[in-house]
Amino acid sequence: MDLTNIFMIAMVMVAFVLAVAEVLKKTFNLNTQYMPITSVVIGIFIGLVLWPLADYPVYIMLISGFIAGLTASGTFDLLKAAKKEGEQ
To answer: Which of 14, 58, 68, 88 would you call most buried, defined as having the most Cβ atoms within 10 angstroms of its Cβ?
Structure first.
């Protein structure tokens, strides 16, 4: 098992993490300052949910979920900054 597999799994999960985080943000009116930790928790949860479907050990899926959550958090911040820049 090398890092390439972990990053490939995380890249697939990023889309799911972004979608779930956005739905939770709109549904429960979450403050945007809590979105990074929310994204990481969602990523870890999705990694656990997808673990039985994968041929990888649970710790690989947890690490992939963590990376996916961090990536989704960075993407969220990047999109927020681009939206503010476009409004000016």
So the answer is: 68
Contacts (Cβ under 8 Å, ≥6 apart) of 54? 9, 60, 61
Summarised one tens digit per residue, pLDDT across range 2-44 is 788 888 889 999 999 999 998 999 999 988 888 899 999 999 9
Do the Cβ atoms of 44 and 9 come closer than 8 Å? no
**Could you tell me which of 78, 83, 73 has the C-alpha nearest to residue 13?**
73
Judge whether 26 and 87 are in contact, CB under 8 Å.
Answer: no
How far is it, in rounded angstroms, from Cα 70 to Cα 14?
A: 9
d(CA 21, CA 7): 20
10 Å Cβ neighbour count for 67?
21
Q: What's the pTM? A: 0.84
